[in-house]
Amino acid sequence: MARRLLLGCSAVGNTLVERTREERGELVAITDDTGWASTLRDRNVGTVEADPTDPSAYPDHAAVVLVASDDPARNVDAAEAARERYPDAMIVAHVGTNPTAAQQAALEAVADRVVDPVEALAARVREATGADGDELPVRLLSTLRDLSGPLLVVAHDNPDPDAIASAIGLARVADVVGVPADPCYGGEIAHQENRALVNLLDLSLSTFDGIDLDDYGGIALVDHSRAGINDSLPEGHPVDVVVDHHPPRGPVDGEFVDIRPDAGATSTLIEEYLSRLGVEPERQLATALLYGIRIDTKDFTRSTSIPDFEAAASLSPLVDESTLERVESPSVSQETLRVLANAIEGRDVRGSTVASCVGEISDRDTLAQASERLLDMDGVTVTFVYGYKDGVIYASARSRGADLDVGELLRDALDSVGSAGGHATMAGAQVPLGILEAVSEDESLPDVVEEFVSGRFFEALDDAPSQPVGPVPEFPND
Fold it and tell me: What is the DSSP string of 99-144?
């Protein structure tokens, strides 16, 4: 079993012990400070009272060495002695109190990582206050403080993991400044993995039904950017905060607007806010945010940016891995299998594009699952699956390795008769059935829907827009 060695102790060393006590591997401390030796023993840390710069007191093996006294000169001596004794060990060294430039340079020359709590704290303060040029967290907190009452955080209807996690996460950000916040959603959480996420993590979200907007001093949108478009708010309702990663179709209104299409998930933005504010998310929230990032980036294989990896790396040590495994392996519903079977049987293949009408559905999330699965067909780069429920046609599109933007494709095909949007590689749409339901007796509704939707889709495909190669246009937010 790997051995970790603590050389010297201080408040910093004590914190390192606390942070690493759950990690695998025996921890041994060497310090000649009687007080710290007693404290470490009280915490069941094997402690030797000896000079931490004297290698004769060191154990035979150490994989990780933590150098942590407050004396910079002794830390340099201890780090150099440890490097000579353990050439392959990872050495993490505390700079100590008021080190000279020469002492800091000496530590950096021998240690794998040098910890300077004063500089780390100063950097955190600069980040949180916007002194580093990024004022987003400051403006967000200022907007939240100026609200006249609680905040209603609205996810898009039938929310996916990214929307669910982002809504919970933004409510946690509001809590930082003492603003009560209620995350909510419209529609239903029908996808089996999404239900498992909410149930197993015991996430608290309200349904939009019964909510009185007059009870709230502000509205926030997460994972979408327009009130009344794919959410349960009245169209055009005033919004205070917008946090999204989908490209906007037009101007976005709000006191605070953060839309970053380069990010793979809105959860990435929420994790950044928490990190910049020095807030460590609770296990349930960390697990939800990581899952939201993984789902929207398809495990970092689709529309992924460096911030997505950074957010995931920050969240990973905090997640509930056993629960995450259970969320990722739920039972598959009979409706999901039925829709997938209908999508395969009714597929219309034209070149590398597959479109399929699956008829009436009871769970709109099955369309996305079918669209994903059809993308695994040999030679297929674009999929489009659609069906209808409760007077509305729902559609889901995916692409992989295609030189077109399916978000723009669906907008061109269906936005004029409903609403549509998304990214270059994944998009969705919904269209009211309207007069299509008034079919004659000799026509079936599925046939009429297929003729109408498929016709518009393939007509738009003939003049399909390619994926954007430059920056997404910015729209004024006022």
Answer: --HHHHHHHHHH-SEEE-HHHHHHHHHHHHHTTTS--HHHHHHHHH
Domain 136-328 fold is inorganic pyrophosphatase (n-terminal core) (3.90.1640)
Q: Could you tell me which residues are beta bridge partners of residue 5?
A: 28, 65
Residue 302 has a pLDDT of 80
For 316-351, b where at least 16 C-beta lie within 10 A, e where not — what string? eebbbeebbeebeebeebeebebbbebbeeebeeee
**Phi and psi torsions of 344, nearest 5°:** -70, -45
Pick from 139, 32, 134: which is nearest to 78 by CA? 32
Domain 334-462: which topology? Diaminopimelate Epimerase; Chain A, domain 1 (3.10.310)
DSSP assignment letter at 56 = G
Q: Which two tokens stand for residue 157?
A: 């209807």
Classify residue 313 as exposed, middle or buried by CB count within 10 Å of its CB (0-12, 13-18, 19+): exposed
Helix (H) or strand (E) holding 411: helix 406-414
In the chain (478 residues long), the average pLDDT of successive 10-residue segments reads 80 72 70 90 89 93 90 94 92 90 92 78 53 68 93 92 95 94 88 82 88 95 91 92 89 92 95 90 94 91 89 92 80 84 94 94 88 90 94 92 84 89 83 76 81 93 58 41
User: How large is the greatest C-alpha to C-alpha distance in the chain, in angstroms?
Assistant: 95
pLDDT digits (tens, 9 = 90+) for 218-272: 999 999 998 988 888 998 899 999 999 988 877 888 999 999 999 999 999 999 9
Query: What is the three-class DSSP state of 380?
Result: coil
Q: Assign domain 3-115 one CATH number from 1.20.120.450, 3.90.1640.10, 3.40.50.720, 3.10.580.10.
A: 3.40.50.720
Cβ(366)–Cβ(335) below 8 Å: yes
Question: What separation in angstroms does the CA of 146 have from each of 162, 218, 266, 300?
Answer: 27, 9, 24, 37
